[in-house]
Amino acid sequence: MNQHLQHILTIIQQDESITAEQKNEIIKSLKDADKDLEIIAFKFDRTEKVKRTTAILLEETIEELEQKRKAVEAQNRELEIETALEKVRAEAMGMKKPDDILDICKIMFTELDLLGFSEIRNTLINFWDDDNGLLIDYDYSTETGGNKAKLSYSSHPVFEQFQKIIKNSQDAFAELIVTKHELESWKQRRRESGEYEDPRLNNLDALYYYFYSIGVGAIGISTFSSITEEKLNVLKRFRNVFDFAYRRYADVAQAETQAREKNPG
Predict the structure, then answer these.
(1) Which has the closest alpha carbon to 120: 104, 143, 100, 101?
(2) Angle at Cα 161 formed by Cα 156 and Cα 131, nearest 5°?
(3) 51 CB contacts (<8 Å, ≥6 apart)?
(4) Cα(48)–Cα(38) distance, rounded to whole angstroms?
(5) Which has the closest alpha carbon to 249: 134, 100, 85, 82?
(6) CA–CA distance, 202 with 183 (Å, rounded to integer)
(7) What is the pTM assigned to this prediction?
(8) Which positions ≥6 away from 207 have C-beta within 8 Å?
(9) Per-residue pLDDT for the chain (265 aa), expressed as one digit of tens each?
(10) Homologous superfamily of 95-262 in CATH?
(11) How far apart are CA 195 and CA 179, in angstroms?
């Protein structure tokens, strides 16, 4: 019996002023009350267990839904990336002449922008001209359009460091950071190389370049701030697509040149 009811029962049993009949009625009421309390306690305990079980199930359901949401987002992201890669692949596979590289830079810029590369300044594809110590630079942005320039390997200390890293292997990666105190000399190098004026380079804290080697050159982007590892992986996939297509183009071009040399008439 409930301890409080038990206490009342003890007092009643000891009270000689209450008749036996009255005591029996009170005791019966106390026992009924005790049963009611037990039922209420049981129901309360069961309700609490149901609440705990429901909370656990709800938590598991929310976690499962969150996992499914993330999976759907990842699938959608992958589909977006594959669509972008296919556009670059199609453009690269259709190359007819070297300057078609600018069209590929344009497609890259558009697709990377759509994929959330909000930091992007331009896309770049470079080729080495070791005989003349020059880098043939193709780049594109919506602000400046497509541009081509020839840049000396030794035109800037940061640029020289970049060359050593990116030319180290056919699968090399290089991150080039032009710090705030280097930006003035960097802009001067651009002027001396005959590159276009880019007012976006004013009042920057730093300028970032990310390049992946393609053996005969490099493909990459410049940005106004650092980018995430996920975006670097996306950029690498763009490199892989372009690298395959460009090697095919180079093989076809070489075969055509050799054919012309054998049959000049």
Answers:
(1) 143
(2) 75
(3) none
(4) 15
(5) 100
(6) 9
(7) 0.74
(8) 121, 177, 178, 183, 186, 201, 222, 223, 224
(9) 667 667 676 777 776 677 777 777 777 876 777 787 788 877 878 888 888 888 888 887 888 888 888 888 989 999 999 999 999 999 999 888 888 999 999 999 999 999 999 999 999 999 999 999 999 999 999 999 999 999 999 989 888 888 889 988 888 999 999 999 999 999 999 998 889 989 999 989 999 999 999 999 999 999 999 999 999 999 999 999 999 888 887 776 676 666 666 666 5
(10) GAF domain (3.30.450.40)
(11) 20
Enumerate the domain spans of the chain: 1-93, 95-262
Query: Which of 84, 71, 78, 115 lies closest to 227, judged by CA?
Result: 115
Question: Which tokens sit at 137?
Answer: 């630079």
